Amino acid sequence: MPSDVTSLLFDAANLMVIGMFVVFLFLATLIGAVNLIAWVNSKFPEVEVPVSRHQPSQSKSNIAISSGVVAAISAAIHQHRNNK
Amino acid sequence: MPSDVTSLLFDAANLMVIGMFVVFLFLATLIGAVNLIAWVNSKFPEVEVPVSRHQPSQSKSNIAISSGVVAAISAAIHQHRNNK
Amino acid sequence: MPSDVTSLLFDAANLMVIGMFVVFLFLATLIGAVNLIAWVNSKFPEVEVPVSRHQPSQSKSNIAISSGVVAAISAAIHQHRNNK
Amino acid sequence: MEKIQLLWDSTALAHFEPGQIVMMIVGALLLYLAIVKKFEPLLLLPIGFGAVLTNIPLAGFSDAGGLLYYIYHIGIETGVFPLLIFMGVGAMTDFSALIANPRMLLLGAAAQFGIFGTLFGAIALNFVPGFEFSMKDAAAIAIIGGADGPTAIFLASRLAPDLLGAIAVAAYSYMALVPIIQPPIMRLLTNEQERKIEMAQLRHVSKREKIIFPLAVLLMTILFLPSATPLIGMFCLGNLMKESGVVDRLSNTAQNELINVVTIFLGLAVGSKLSADKFLTLETLGILALGAIAFSVGTAAGVLMAKLLSRFSSQKINPLIGAAGVSAVPMAARVVNKVGLEANHHNFLLMHAMGPNVAGVLGSAVAAGILLALVA
Amino acid sequence: MEKIQLLWDSTALAHFEPGQIVMMIVGALLLYLAIVKKFEPLLLLPIGFGAVLTNIPLAGFSDAGGLLYYIYHIGIETGVFPLLIFMGVGAMTDFSALIANPRMLLLGAAAQFGIFGTLFGAIALNFVPGFEFSMKDAAAIAIIGGADGPTAIFLASRLAPDLLGAIAVAAYSYMALVPIIQPPIMRLLTNEQERKIEMAQLRHVSKREKIIFPLAVLLMTILFLPSATPLIGMFCLGNLMKESGVVDRLSNTAQNELINVVTIFLGLAVGSKLSADKFLTLETLGILALGAIAFSVGTAAGVLMAKLLSRFSSQKINPLIGAAGVSAVPMAARVVNKVGLEANHHNFLLMHAMGPNVAGVLGSAVAAGILLALVA
Amino acid sequence: MEKIQLLWDSTALAHFEPGQIVMMIVGALLLYLAIVKKFEPLLLLPIGFGAVLTNIPLAGFSDAGGLLYYIYHIGIETGVFPLLIFMGVGAMTDFSALIANPRMLLLGAAAQFGIFGTLFGAIALNFVPGFEFSMKDAAAIAIIGGADGPTAIFLASRLAPDLLGAIAVAAYSYMALVPIIQPPIMRLLTNEQERKIEMAQLRHVSKREKIIFPLAVLLMTILFLPSATPLIGMFCLGNLMKESGVVDRLSNTAQNELINVVTIFLGLAVGSKLSADKFLTLETLGILALGAIAFSVGTAAGVLMAKLLSRFSSQKINPLIGAAGVSAVPMAARVVNKVGLEANHHNFLLMHAMGPNVAGVLGSAVAAGILLALVA
Ligand code: NA
Ligand code: NA
Ligand code: NA
Questions:
Q1: Which chains reach chain B with 3 or more Cβ–Cβ distances below 8 angstroms?
Q2: d(CA F98, CA F352)
Q3: Rg over CA atoms, chain E
Q4: What is the per-residue pLDDT across F106-131, written as a single tens digit (0 to 9) for each?
Q5: Up-side HSE of residue D229: CA atoms within 13 Å toward CB?
Q6: Distance D30 CA to ligand 3 centre (A)
Q7: What is the DSSP letter of E64?
Q8: To pair with E203 at 20 to 30 A between CA atoms, which of E157, E331, F232, F327?
Q9: E97: distance to nearest CA of chain F, Å?
Q10: Closest listed ligand to the CA of D107
């Protein structure tokens, strides 16, 4: 059994190294992502929309937008079907 | 297959006519019902009970009513058993 | 069938007596328990902790207490394993 | 043409059975009582509505795959809904009055004679041709005398699911009728002098006592009556959450949103048991009669016990408060207060009646445990 | 080394199928519409998120044992979630405007031509190679014209579960697009003079009428269209809880916490049906096209019916309010108000449009019942 | 007489096993800690109560058909409850501090050494006779070092359900003990000078960044660690609902009523795993010891990483904030603040510590995903 445990212990050490490596890799990449977001955000500053108190934002629908939704989905489907 | 579709199409037309007919019939009958309710309501005007602010209406129990409940249920059961 | 019913009725009477006896016994014992709690409580009067309004009691953790928790659980386990 | 025939066939008109119509009228009656007469509307409105829905021909609300079928099987058959209601009720209950005057527990005990006496009566009814109540049926019916909705539903779902609808309807109807049923009995068994008795003010109860109380009740139930622990355990959990003061957000949810959601579903599921073949039977008449007896006997037993207790007590006890021992919280306590005020305009018995009132809840849960242990 | 290989294999990068990537982009698009464009965010945000989650390779959200698998099977397959939403919507709906002017029901009826006309169109589409809609498929697609989310989901889950994702997405997308779709049609079918018509103020509706109304609707549905009783029954239960005024705590929970919880789960479950093999098909294109037609036809039918009704009516009717008959509560009524104001700055049609608007909800539930009776 | 014998047999007194009594005392101890010492009462109160209920002889709370049986199988075995809690926690979490200073993520990463180091330790414990932890057991135990309740319960329910009770109790107990465990380690590894360091104020974070952040986290998890998407996905859904601002009613329900209901049930279900045969074992002692090690190692790793980071950083970093990387939100951040104030009365580190604190939540969810991918 001690030999089994030794082999298990070896696996655990392995897992420990890989695990810490991946955690660091993942969170370090996330640092990059956050910095990227901040950078993009500073390039395209938010237009401060003075939210009117009088209209409920909940169910408001922005009319100014084209009905491009459906077009976009359609395009995606065509794309996909052609690729198949 | 086109012949199948034609027959299906015929069914769909059929369903369309019957469906719209039933929808109109149903909602037109409901108009009658609402008018009837309004008429009955105007005949027996609501007694404006000035709700007292001091007693919670939630769990209030109207004592003035006879215990006719049980009598009514009993009568219904007798009725039903005799009809069987 | 009447004889069956009679025997059933005897059982019911039996159950009635025992049931009422147990209900009384149980609740009478509870009287004793409540009196005991009140007595103990009066012996060790509650220290009126003036609850500060400023800190939320919800997630407060009392630091002054020793970490005896773990010790206590450990002791319980040892106790149990030895008794087996 | 064929489609129109199909449509007609899919109309209820072609499929109504007389029993379904009668049961819909019963459902409508329950809605009327709930909405117009304000009889226990929180339960009777969903029950009445469920009764209507379950009796619609072709709609299949209570058939496999139907909405009420799911709700019933998930919530009632498992016993989960009544237990969650009991937790919420526990989180709403204040035991101060009982802790201050624990002898009130004896009144809550005496009133349970409404249960056990009715059990005897239900079996005795078997001498009448047409009645064939088993001991389980009798126990489930008798619990109506506990005057506690979730306890009745829980026990009926365990012992006699077929009678569940009638038992629940009877229990809630009589609870709403408490202001009519109780006063005559209370007046019959007491004299003017007794009804005028004023009681001493209750002592202050400390927060610590209130926290320990549900734990003590639970401990005793565990030791002596484990079959009552589902009901009393959940009740004590709710009460502990409330009194401990450390989990207010859980306690608030248990006594508001959670109990509201469960109440809607519980009512609908109980209503779904109001089908003609289960409800329009001679048994239902027996259940209604026995329920009335149960409430009356419980009330009488409570009052008489209070008189007895008063005799052996140094402090005077107004025997009216014994009537609150049947539970029916808080209606019964209010009735006591009202009858007391009629005899003595300065006599406010409400707080004193809350003691036996909550004792009655414990008492009927204990009685349910006994029945589960000995009959199930 | 082996572990690193294992880790790479357990990375999504090695397992992505193109369809999954496209569907994630669709999900992201829905999130964009919900958050940035504020298109029906209460539904499209959870749907979009669910679409992303369900298409993650290896994560198995929609495989047996996955979170979305459980939610879908418990809530959608059983029909429970849409029915609970309908109960909550019922508890939020005020029928005053409709009771005051019941002829508005005819506008709600006319607008259902959006449903039945689309059903015909869906079958006609079968002449186009590649489309093979069965009658059940066609019925499920046509219900998009009802402009009512829970009704569409309920019917689709019953008749064509495979199309559920596309149908729900189309229904909610077009509901959000109502302010774009409807005005041109409304302007096309009416002249300046008609749009300027001001309508008489509505009479006061008594509490009693409001209580009886849901019961009358339920009774009629029971008698004539039992297949519609699940939807209309739960809707009427919610409305009755609200209007009766005796169970406010239940009504409040039904229209707040309960509907919120169910909305989160419903949205996630609908999103879980947005898988590449179900959504990236020719059928979806057909559904999107038919959905647009359904909304347009329904709007036109409502407006034309209003013009017809105005001719036979003593009091003038502004034909714009016919457009509100498609449901899409309360968006369609707001659009009517807005277009009305453009023609006449003193013309506030909102209250008048609420009548056909809620009539449209009933109308599409009735239509759903007809389809269930004749097609299922 | 026979009935009395039956009653005695139905009494717990005749059936208690010693282990059950011990476990009830453990449950009572947890209640004591929750109520009197206010140790994580939201979880420990229901857990303690569940532990008492599940050990009642004859009551069968955790047997098929019992209340706790249903709750456990529906909520924990499926993983649904911890995921819903995580969604609620996500809706309560503010990532501003982390977005303003993303390098804090490295502290959250370092603290996960508490997890992986403990995994090694758990396997090493197998050299001690009597311990036989499999790799799955070790992984489930190690996650205690994540200092995050729902993550621990989710992972334990997946990898080692038998150890779930002990692991959850250890996790919550040590989280409550954070104010005792952490300060000595923090003081040992830092000098007075370091503890006095004041940090620069954090920049303002825009609404858009806060909306994109959860989506970015989700995207990365999807790409690189799909096995972590259940946890991180639900967390990000909650956070997106909060930050998007378009579904406030859903977000509020998720972080209030829904999480409260689930917390009650989760606690009871975890408590139901505290049975004598599962808990009163040598393994539990090992788990308690390893848990303490995990917290200590995680704290130390965080502090050391902060010192390292400070060396390579232009702006000074107070190494104390590294201790917040273990999660235990918001307790660990408060402890950092307190220890910081002791060294420098003008040094408020709370906001700075929130960054590593929420980074620790992400870090331990990531670690859980790694363990699920490599061990499960
Ligand atoms: Na009682
Ligand atoms: Na509609
Ligand atoms: Na952590």
A1: D, E
A2: 8
A3: 22
A4: 999 999 999 999 999 999 999 999 89
A5: 31
A6: 55
A7: T
A8: E331
A9: 27
A10: 1
